[in-house]
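Predict structure. Input: Glycosyltransferase subfamily 4-like N-terminal domain-containing protein, 408 residues.
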Amino acid sequence: MKNVWILNHYAQEPGGAGGTRHYQLAKNLPAHGWEASIVAASVEHQSGKQRLADTETIRLDQYSGVPFLWLRTSEYKGNGTARMRNMLEYTWQVIKPGKLSPLKKPDVIIGSSVHPFAAAAGAVLAWRHKVPFVFEVRDLWPETLIDMGRLERNSFIARSLRVLEKWLYKRAKRIVVLLPKAHEYIVPMGIDPKKIAWIPNGVDLQDFPCPADKVSGDEFTLMYFGAHGPANGLDNVLRAQQIIEQRPEMSNVRLRIIGNGPCKAELITMAEKFGLKRVSFEDPVPKREIPALAAQADAFVFNLINAPVFKYGISSNKLFDFMAGQRPVLFCCDAGNNPIEDSGAGYTVQPGNPEALADAVARLTRLPSEDRAAMGRAGRRYVEVEHGFDKLAGSLAGCLNEACESSR
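Output follows.
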C-alpha cells in the first residue's frame, strides 16, 4: 500500500462544519491501493476554534483510520493580517524539518491551493523526500482574488503570485483541478494538458442516505447552508425574499440561512432593515447532521456573484449536498458548468437578479409536489453517478499512479 501526504491548511475532520473533501477521498483511497495522511492547521477556519491544548504544538488524530496531523497556528478572525499570519505559520510548520515525522514516509505529496503557500510547501517537501509533487488547484490564485476585487491585476502582489502559480504548475508531475474548465486557464501558460486531471468535489453517499420525498404542509421552506462570504452574494437572496414577502400569494415561503462567514452580521442587519419576517439565520451544523437538515427543505438556493472567474466552472460542496438531499435547486449562477441544468434538478436563474429569483421560487411553489419530487430524484441520481467519493477516489489513485510512473 502506497502512501500520500495531503497538505490542506483548512482540512476538516468529520463531525465539524464545512467541507470534508480530503477526509472522504482518504477514506476511500485504500480500496485503490493508497493510504493518505492529512496535514492541516490547528485552527478551524469557519469557527476560529483552536483544536490543540495550550501545551500541544502538534497532535496526530485518527478518524476512521485516516490520520490527521494538526500543526499549531494562531487564532484569527476575518480576512486581515491575522489570517495571513496564520497562512505563513502553517507553511513554516509544514516545511520545518522533523515536524511531520509522526507520519509514514510518503510516496507522493499533494499540495492543495486553498492558498498557494501551502501548495508551495508541498513542492518543497516533495523535493526533500525525493517523491513526486501533485498540485491540487481548488481556487485559481491570484485570478479569483482579482475578480473579487481584492487585488489589482497589475499590483506587485498579483504579479508575485502569478510567478509562484506558474512555478507550481511546472513543478508538479500532475495537476488536479476541481473546476471542469480550469485547463482553459492553465494550458496557455505553457503547461502540458496531459498533466491535468479533473477531480471535482463530491458526496459520500454512505454518509448521506437517500431521504424520503418532502411532503409539504402549509409552509414552503427555501434553504441555504454554507459559507456567508462575498462570493456567495447572499444579499441577492435576501432581496428576493423581500419581494416574496410583498406578494400575498407567497405568504407561505420561509427562508432559512444556515452557516457562518464574514458577511453574516451584515446580512442580518440587511434583513432587519428590509423588515423581513420569514427569514432565520442559524448556526452552522456538523457535516454529519447535513442529511437530516437537508430533509427539512422544500427547495435549495445556490447563489454566486457574477464574476468572470466562474467561466472556468464551479465545484461546490454544498451544491452536491443540495442535490444529494433530493430537493429542487435554484441555481443562481453564470458558470462554465451547470449541474442543475444537466440533471434537470431545478431552475437556472440569472445571478444578481432578485426579481428573477423571486419568480423562480413562485414557479416552484406552484408545481405539483410530485414534479418537485421528480426534480429532487434527478439531482440525486446525478451525484450518485458523477460525484460519489468512491469513484472520485479511484480517479485520484489513478492520478497518483501516473505521477509515480512519470518520475521513474
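The CA atoms of residues 93 and 147 lie 30 Å apart.
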